[in-house]
Design a protein that fits this description.
mainly alpha; Arp2/3 complex 21 kDa subunit ARPC3; two-stranded antiparallel ribbon; 8 helices; about 0% strand; elongated
């Protein structure tokens, strides 16, 4: 790890944002549309990715992934619980990798574009997170399609697995995350601007 990453300010920021991720994810675990719990934690991940950098985004994404996995393990998300029961390692990797990559990609987009247009870079970083998070979830779910098919049969869902994942399952969550991130991006920009001047 870089010495620049291990500063007291970065550690404090990670601690606060990690706590925020845990709290928001636990609360959103009770908000459900379709087969998957809605997730509202991508904004703090993007915030950390922008303020701290790629390693910050990765760490916060991993925290998000671990919370998702633990919630599934405890039965708070029926689909994740079923996936864990059949594919524990693959489910763990899907949860952790999708979160980590969402944080990393957001950080890289901001880092690449912020010198040209900081406002646009924050918006694109915020919008990229749900795209990466949802995309990797769908890929992971397709790898575990045998278990997804069992879940669909148990819940009497008689559609194609792609339709189920993209439209009925991840699609609703993606739209909520994407719209929410888009709406909150201007406020995120102001927060990031303020925090960066205080560091």
């Amino acid at each position: 790890m870089e010495k620049k990453f291990l500063t007291s300010k970065n550690i404090a920021t990670l601690a606060v944002l990690s706590a925020l991720i845990v709290i928001i994810q636990l609360i959103s675990g009770f908000i459900k549309i379709g087969a998957v719990n809605l997730s509202f934690v991508l904004i703090p991940i993007v915030m950390g990715a922008i303020i701290i950098g790629p390693l910050g985004g990765i760490v916060l994404g991993i925290v998000f992934g671990l919370v998702c996995f633990i919630m599934g393990l405890l039965g708070m998300d029926s689909l994740t619980y079923l996936l864990i029961s059949q594919h524990p390692v693959l489910t763990f990797l899907t949860c952790v990798v999708k979160g980590a990559m969402a944080g990393l990609v957001s950080a890289l987009i901001y880092k690449l574009l912020n010198k040209k247009n900081e406002y646009l870079s924050v918006i694109l970083a915020a919008l990229a997170a749900p795209v990466v998070n949802t995309g990797l979830f769908i890929i992971g779910a397709l790898i575990m399609s045998d278990t997804i098919t069992v879940f669909m049969a148990a819940n009497r869902i008689s559609v194609d697995i792609i339709y189920f994942l993209v439209i009925m399952c991840a699609g609703i969550n993606f739209l909520v995350e994407f719209v929410l991130n888009g709406i909150l991006a201007p406020s995120l920009y102001r927060v990031v601007k303020y925090v960066k001047t205080r560091r």
